[in-house]
Design a protein that fits this description.
heterodimer, A: 391 residues, alpha+beta, 12% strand, B: mainly alpha
């Protein structure tokens, strides 16, 4: 019978559910450890910079307890009513309102009164403060002092978030321009290798020519060559080229070609792997029908390769977007050429203690990769699994 | 440069390559129809059009530089005077170089091991719970961001304020909450290397995780069920079935992360720039590329040291490729 389970079975099931609970807890621990750093960055970038400098981001969700000193208005703002003189206003003035729990009128006892209590000064004048900071100061005699009295308050301020840091960083710190520059580097540096390598991979797969196997082996060997191995000679070629034609050795076309070079092997290899899997009969049928290689490439191979292109595009785009070394070596550090990662590194040096700028800048630099990650995760993972073997 | 001219440059750059392929092939077709010569002749020109751009780039940016770097390592700082093995002799005596080699070994031992281990454990855990996909997504996310961005994130975590002040760095806040003194983590020699490695592990675990996840699905369910019916514990199944099954995958992930770690530059450059004994080869090389006008000899020696690390992997890749081609 289905409903009757043997004792042995129940024991096994119990053990399983215990182990599944353990698995859940352990996984939760991993997830928390992995997400806390990025989460802290995001929260910090949204906090007020003065608060950010003195308290941890994890305190930003709870009401924070603060002690403050405010001063009432002086004699100029008093008015008379029924024989009494009054001064009334709000303690916070232009500041953001907080919720007051207690107040005091001397520095010796700053929590002497709770809101609603009547506090009496030495001159017998009386003051009441409500929790929003509105106060009413009442006296039988006319107020004669220009300066008001000091009021000590204990207040809780609610969590507050702001986009001010983003405005500051994008427009004043020049990250907006760096953002555009990075696009100007990343788009061609992704598309050019894709164009060149799709023809190359096609030739390696479907054309017969002398030295094909050697060329393929060279591509595979190039996959793991560290780009450090190539930097110095390329830089000196660029310097010679620049001197010969009287142009700057650091330029956008220069970095596009450098990225094309460093991405060539992996792009070709991934495409070759994909093209190999296409049915050979299809190509032969096209050939019999009189199609040239270029026709076959345009009409058959490209449409079929769109998913592979998508994966490779994302991998290379993210690689270029996140790159620092190539950008440092082949581009100037002036505002019209500096890329995001280089700018961020510069800020780390010059504004090392200004966490509102650093956290916001980092988040801006991460925004595009994160957008791609969350919207196109499928292609990203597919590309990585297909072979993330880049020199 | 204004935004418009920048966009124009980008467009021209991309169109240049599209037009090259289109026009050259179009011209070839045009003459082909006119003359209708033999097919082999047409095909060999076509092959040149298809291959030449990629080959030129490959040659100028990879093949030539590799050999040129080797040549330069035997020349002086400007690459003009032959100095024999002077640069290598310098490296062996240089304390920064020795420190870098030691640190790179540390990175090579610890980062791939921990990333692979965490990736494997998390992939297994995520397979058992209903919210596994979300968990995987979260742990994978650092893969998408830059090393410099990750550097900022972690520098914030390691932030240090004097004792008595409120700590805004997470690690010091925890340290203080547990009753210890706050530490300037990145300045404690030897330990600081571990704190830098943690960043790389944080990023690369995601890579190991997705590849393992895909591989785990290929283990036949019958095998696992059979083991369970025989009363094998989950831990036993993990060690005796899953690990042996994934051997090949583990090796692949290990190599990928090893190659990455050999070249690690951004993290060090952004976080400590090699201070407090955290120097690594790639950062030292960058330093020598520009220090005092640049020393191409010493820079090349350092690049070669990184290259030596990947040669076994390179050989293995070629061996595997030849084996596949023969099948």
């Amino acid at each position: 019978m289905e409903f009757v389970s043997t004792p042995k079975r129940t024991k096994a099931m119990k053990k399983l559910s215990f182990s599944s609970l353990f698995a859940q807890l352990l996984l939760l621990l991993f997830v928390i450890v992995w997400i806390a750093p990025s989460f802290g960055l995001l929260i910090s970038s949204l906090r007020d910079k003065d608060v950010l400098a003195i308290s941890g981001w994890w305190t930003s969700f709870i009401n924070t307890e603060v002690n403050e000193i405010h001063r009432t208005l002086g004699m100029d703002s008093q008015y008379e009513e029924n024989g009494y003189y009054y001064i009334e206003d709000n303690l916070f003035g232009e500041d953001k309102p907080k919720k007051i729990s207690s107040f005091g009128i001397t520095s010796k006892d700053i929590n002497a009164y709770t809101v609603g209590d009547v506090a009496t000064f030495k001159d017998q004048s009386e003051i009441t403060v409500d929790e929003n900071g509105n106060y009413s100061w009442k006296s039988e005699n006319e107020f004669t002092k220009k300066k008001g009295k000091r009021i000590f308050i204990s207040a809780t301020s609610p969590p507050s978030f702001t986009l001010d840091n983003y405005k500051e960083v994008l427009f004043k710190e020049g990250l907006g321009q760096a953002f555009i520059n990075t696009f100007a580097v990343a788009l061609p540096s992704t598309l050019i290798p894709l164009i060149i390598c799709s023809f190359f991979a096609y030739a390696l797969t479907w054309m017969n020519f002398f030295g094909r196997d050697l060329l393929l082996a060279t591509v595979i060997a190039s996959l793991v060559v560290p780009l450090q191995m190539c930097l110095i000679p390329i830089l000196s070629i660029y310097n010679d080229f620049g001197a010969l034609f009287g142009v700057s050795s650091k330029s956008y076309p220069g970095i596009w070609m450098a990225h094309t070079g460093f991405g060539l092997a992996s792009t070709t290899f991934l495409l070759w792997n994909f093209l190999k899997s296409l049915p050979k009969e299809m190509m032969e049928a096209a050939k019999v029908d009189g199609a040239t290689h270029y026709d076959t490439f345009r009409r058959i191979v490209v449409p079929l390769s769109i998913p592979a292109f998508a994966s490779i595009f994302i991998l290379q785009f993210l690689w270029v977007w996140n790159d620092l070394l190539v950008g440092l070596v082949f581009l100037d550090k002036n505002p019209s050429e500096i890329i995001l990662t280089a700018k961020l590194k510069e800020l780390l040096g010059s504004r090392g203690e200004n966490w509102e700028i650093l956290t916001t800048g980092a988040f801006i630099s991460m925004s595009v990769p994160l957008f791609i990650f969350f919207s196109l995760q499928k292609y990203f993972i597919r590309g990585l699994v297909a072979g993330s073997v880049k020199g | 440069m204004s935004m418009f001219s920048l966009a124009l440059t980008v467009l021209i750059g991309i169109l240049f390559f599209v037009m090259f392929f289109h026009l050259s092939n179009f011209l070839l077709d045009f003459y082909q129809i006119k003359k209708s010569k033999t097919l082999t002749y047409e095909n060999s020109i076509r092959a040149v059009i298809f291959i030449a751009p990629a080959f030129i780039v490959l040659f100028v940016f990879i093949i030539f530089p590799v050999f040129e770097t080797i040549r330069l390592s035997f020349f002086d700082k400007r690459g003009e005077v032959f100095v024999g093995i002077y640069n290598f002799a310098w490296a062996i005596k240089d304390p920064d170089f020795r420190r870098s080699i030691l640190n790179n070994f540390g990175w090579l031992l610890i980062v791939p091991t921990l990333s692979t281990f965490f990736g494997l454990v998390i992939a297994n855990l995520a397979d058992r719970v209903w919210w596994g996909t979300i968990a995987k997504s979260i742990i994978f996310m650092p893969m998408a961001i830059s090393f410099v961005g990750a550097g900022v994130i972690w520098k914030f975590i390691y932030d240090y304020r004097g004792p008595g002040d409120e700590q805004i760095g997470l690690l010091n806040a925890i340290t203080v909450a547990l009753g210890f003194e706050p530490q300037a983590w990145l300045t404690i020699p030897l330990w600081n290397n571990l704190f830098l490695m943690a960043i790389m592990v944080w990023i690369q675990t995601g890579l190991a995780l997705v590849i393992f996840s895909a591989a785990l699905r290929s283990i036949p369910n019958e095998t696992l069920d059979a083991a369970r019916i025989d009363g094998a514990s989950e831990l036993k199944i993990f060690w005796s079935i899953i690990i042996p099954y994934l051997q090949q995958t583990i090796l692949v992930i290990w190599t990928i992360i090893t190659i990455l770690v050999l070249k690690v530059f951004d993290i060090i450059y952004a976080m400590t720039n090699g201070q407090w004994q955290t120097e690594v080869l790639a950062n030292l090389m960058y330093d020598w590329m520009f220090r005092g006008g640049g020393d191409s000899g010493r820079g090349s020696v350092l690049a070669i040291c990184i290259m030596i690390g990947v040669i076994p992997i390179l050989g293995w890749n070629l061996y595997q490729h030849r084996k596949e081609q023969k099948l």
